[in-house]
Amino acid sequence: MNAFSKLAVLGSLLVVPSACGIDQGTSNTPSPSTSMKPASTSEAFAAAPKSAKRVELTLDSFDLEPGGEIYKCQNFQNPFGSDVAMLQTQSIMSKGSHHLAVFRIDDNADGALEDCSGLEFHATIHAAQTPVAKTTFPEGVGAFLAATEGIRLNAHYFNLTSDTIHAEVKVALDYVGADQVETTAAQIYLNDSTLDVPPGAGTGGGTMKLPATVSGVQLISAQSHMHRRGVQFEATLDDGTMLYHADTWSEPPVKAYVPALSIPDGSKITWKCDYDNETSANLTFGESADTNEMCVFTGFYYPAPGGQMIVGDLSGGDTAALFK
Question: Which domain holds residue 289?
Fold first, then answer.
């Protein structure tokens, strides 16, 4: 079931519901889950927190021709051996990247690099929309991963240059035992799969209420996600608090909340995307950054027992739900 279907089903039940981080700096054979293969980028990961151990993952590299767009995925067997909490997550992506998602999945085995969909949806422990991204969680907080779960990297590349690009993706996960943190963090993901942008100016987004079962939300970070016709994004709380603003679709900056921002129980989040559609066709929700659009508000929050995300889609109503 793809993201649209999952979110729509989730939403319908409630009616009767990439690459984000706290701090941002700038083959067809399986890869061992803890190996780090050489990359052409000279970027280096920041040091791990003193109490943490580190695992590094590398997506098998691939080439993408000028004008090309592709999603590539690869699964990795769980290298931890027990329930863990990520104190810090990082990624480095070479030229041409649009976003990266690091998923928790049930398939706990190494796999080959494969073509995949930009609409697949799983619980997320790291997300990035910039070549270098880093999330450092507050003291006593970490992103949860169960010992039985595997890890899936989903990378979106869009080559707007006149040269073939050599795509490389590296991820570093700094972790401790799950019992060594006070609480776990997870992603917020609010989506508008109903958007339909006509030629010329258009908008997307809407208003979503937080789940009634969620209490004491502390927002760690916020970020937008749009495709190439997106020109402005804004997200606010129903009390008027500005959560996030950006005027770019590519490499939108992360808004870090230090300390975390307390969100009143039962709050509603409104997010709005503005588009400049220079084509002669309507642009609808979809995975292509070239021929589709998206309007997503995302970020990380805590406490999230068991690492449950807050997920909502306007196709399924105006109230989000917990998702794991």
Answer: 184-323
